[in-house]
Amino acid sequence: MELTVSHRGQTYSLSLIPEDTLGVLHTKLEELTATPAPLQKLLYKGKSSRALDDQVTLQEAGLKDGMKIQMLGTTAKEIDGVKAVEDDKQKRERIMRERASKGPTKLRSTGSSSSNDLNYRFHKLLPLEHLPNPSSALDLLQRLSDDPAIRHVMQKYKFAVGILTELAPHEHPELLGLNVNAGQQIKLRLRTDRYDGFRAYREVRKVLCHELTHNVWGDHDNNFKELNSLLNREVAEYESRVKTGTNVLGYSGEVYEPSVEDSCLQTVGGSESSAVSLLEDSAEDRRRRILEAVEKRLR
């Protein structure tokens, strides 16, 4: 029985007999991919091996000669990385508990909760080194990780992610993102299909909000849709609050930035001559005048 197994863009050919068990197949795949057998999930002809016992033969499992199989699973190296992150988190939590047990110190906190900042974040950023420009991919992952609006929703809804990494265009080409084990790992399609650049930041961030929703809800049901919409609104509204002179249109999640003409009417509040002078000035001068007027109104 000749089988072809695809895993993360790599293809493996195996020769087995129909009487071999799924356990034998899982063992061979573990040797080839470093993915532990218990974490392997085989997809073929609309079926999955997850619900089958390892003692079931390949023939009984519905596998046939020449069949193509898609394998999902996390490698041992990635598991070690997540374990290291968890160990580091537990170490930090232990230090925080020890400090708390000693009572107040002379140091004053400048944040809301340092332990929360440590927990509810992306614990590791991992670009794919075998793809072009891994440094640029890391910069994009770092930008997402440091995005104030994303950090806000992660703190608010207590989202923690072990690894934030890439989803290569050839890996699950039908997907823009993937959440593994409710936040153990989130993969995002950062690159264009032809590997000639990176996707627009805001589009990638929307996919990230989608995958963060899977930390709570696995299926794309109404619960998922409501939380996903809420996260996108939270991101848009957070950004609108930190942008001086920006208005939010209800709860649509769309941010409205007034034009120069609108700003003259809405925020400057001066005479007609002041509006005309704004239009005659340079773009930088107009922005400065509008900003000053908005700050004055807010005060």
From TrEMBL:
The name this protein goes by in its record: WLM-domain-containing protein
**Record's superkingdom?**
Eukaryota
Which Pfam families does this one have? ubiquitin, WLM
Domain Ubiquitin-like residue range list: 1-72
Q: Which InterPro entries match?
A: Ubiquitin-like_dom (IPR000626), Ubiquitin-like_domsf (IPR029071), WLM_dom (IPR013536)
Q: Which residues form a coiled coil?
A: none
* Bias type Basic and acidic residues, positions: 86-101
Residues in WLM domain copies: 113-299
Ranges for the region named Disordered are: 86-115
Molecular function terms from GO: proteasome binding
